[in-house]
Amino acid sequence: MIKKEKKNKYFTLKILTTLTIEEQLKIREIRNQASIRSAMYTEKEIGLNEHLQWIDKLKSDKKQIVFAVFNEQNNIIGAVSVKALDILNKKADWEFYLDKKERGGLGAALEYNLIEHVFNVLGIEKLNCEVIETNETVVKLHKKFFFVEEGFRKENLERNGKRIGVYFFGLTKTNWLANKKKILEKYKTIIEKFSIKFEHDI
User: For the chain, does the N or the C end have fewer beta carbons within 10 angstroms?
Assistant: First the structure.
C-alpha cells in the first residue's frame, strides 16, 4: 500500500495596515474572543472606534509591525505583532494570538518562523516577550524555543478578584543560533507541516 504524502498547510502573513477595512475588522473579532482576551493585559472588549484608531496609529508607528495571519482559504485566523522595535539597540518585543479553532501546532510553527524573520530579516539581536502566568501553554511554548525567563513580576494584574503575575522572557540571536539545530530535530514534523510566508518584508 502506497503511503499518501501529507500536504503542507500554507499560511501568509500580511501587514495589517495594507488590508481592506473588512479584513482589519476581522482582527478585532478574533481579538475579542474570550480565550484571547483572558491572555492579554486588558480583558475588556475592544470597541469599533478604538480598533480603528489603533490601526490608524499603526500607519505612522515605525516601532510596531502587525501581521494578519491568512490561511489557504484566504481567511484571517490570527495576528502576530512585533513591537517596541529599537533599530539602534537591535531589540524588539513580540506577541501572537490565533482563532480559538486553530490547533495542530500552528502556534509553534509561527513562533519558529517569526523568530527567523526577526533575526534574519529585521536584523534584531534580542527578542523579548511578556506572558501572564495563567497562560501556561504559551509559557511552555516559549521555553521550548529557548526563550529564557528573565524575571517574574508578582501579582501584577487583577483578574476575577485574584492577583496574577507576569513572566518576562528573552531570546538572543546568539542563543537561537546555538540551539536552532536542536529545535529543528525535535520539532521537525510540526515545523515542516506548515509553510509560512511573510508577504511584505520591512
Answer: N
For the question of whether the overall pTM of this predicted structure is more than 0.70, the answer is yes
67-85 tens-digit pLDDT = 999 999 999 999 999 999 9
Contact call for residues 149 and 169 (beta carbons, < 8 A): yes
Asked whether residue 2 is assigned to any structural domain, the reply reads no
Q: How far is CA 8 from CA 104, 106, 109, 111, 145, in A?
A: 12, 12, 12, 17, 22
- Closest by CA position to 101, among listed 17, 29, 47: 29
Return the CATH number at 134: 3.40.630.30
Q: What is the pLDDT of residue 102?
A: 78
Residue 125 — pLDDT band, cuts 50, 70, 90? Answer: very high
Specify which residues 128 forms β-bridges with.
93, 170
